[in-house]
């Protein structure tokens, strides 16, 4: 394909790679070592059915749990939408910035990676939010991404989170924690 169309840019090659991987992606994880942080076998042993079940209580409960976050990230990867979570996490980290000198460079990096049109990991936000964020980043404060982060949080909560709770990743994880008990 590339030799016939030498004008295709690097973004299209990346898309072909992503599409080529589509057939290898699965909504199931029989081996959870790929999604759990730290020492995965120990982590899975420590994860209780009660904890994993609580992730269904609310999206924020899921996001606040280390293993819930890891499982949700794995699920988003199967949908090719992990940039939403990565952006949300980058914003959470950004809000902890205490150095004024680092604030501007971090804000610019987040904007270029996630917000700008044609950003490598562009999140799906409306034009007004994108432009407001662009203006906010010119004079960054700890709240300059709040509106964009809120929109992405809401999108994940209303769209991805319900699908995650119905996904094979989550149901398999619950089954594994329950099997350990029997």
Q: How would you characterize the overall build of this protein?
A:
Its main location: membrane. It comes from Aegotheles bennettii. The protein is mainly α and 182 residues long. It has one domain (48-177): Regulator of G-protein Signalling 4, domain 2 (Orthogonal Bundle). Helix content is 66%, strand content 0%. The chain is built from ten helices and no strands. It has helices spanning 10-22, 40-46, 49-54, 59-64, 66-78, 82-94, 100-115, 127-138, 146-166, 168-181. It is elongated and about 55 Å long. The model is unreliable at 1-33 (pLDDT under 50).
Which features characterize this protein?
182 residues; mainly alpha; Regulator of G-protein Signalling 4, domain 2; 10 helices; 66% helix; elongated; disordered N terminus; RGS_RGS8; Regulator of G-protein signaling 8; RGS_sf; membrane; RGS
